[in-house]
Amino acid sequence: MEVNQAAEIILRAVHDDMNGSIVFSQFLAHQTKGYDARTSVEIQGIYNKALLVLLDEGLCHRGISADIIELGQKGIDCKGNYRRHIKKRDTRNFLEKTRRILPIFSFVFVVLGFYITYIKKKSNNERKKATIEQHRRDSVQARQRTLHKK
Fold first, then answer.
1. 21-23 and 68-71: which strand pairing?
2. What is the tens place of the pLDDT at every residue in 25-41?
3. What is the C-alpha R_g of the chain?
4. For residues 44 and 6, what is the distance between their CA atoms, to the nearest angstrom?
């Protein structure tokens, strides 16, 4: 069992409870029932880590005593679905990173656009100058030919 699976089980149990709270020691006793001592301790460790994750995320919080776990506002918002919360969190983090990086890409894009426009204008001007110069040469040569023919 992974911590995320245990967090999902705890969150679902708290959400499905009529009062929106559970007694964590009773929950652990129910979850470790039928296992040997070593496996039971490992499962309790995983559930304790999962509880810490839920408390840090704001999905659950401690109640009147340290043993009572109550559903937090974020837990209500995600309707007790931990996977849904993780997807939302990952999407939110991705969008936040994108929001920070996007101006850099926009700046680079604008600079490249200006540079390409500058190169095109310069190339067109050089081409026009070369065409005008060629016409001048042609007209000078044509005059020289007409002068030589006479």
1. antiparallel
2. 899 999 888 888 899 99
3. 37
4. 10
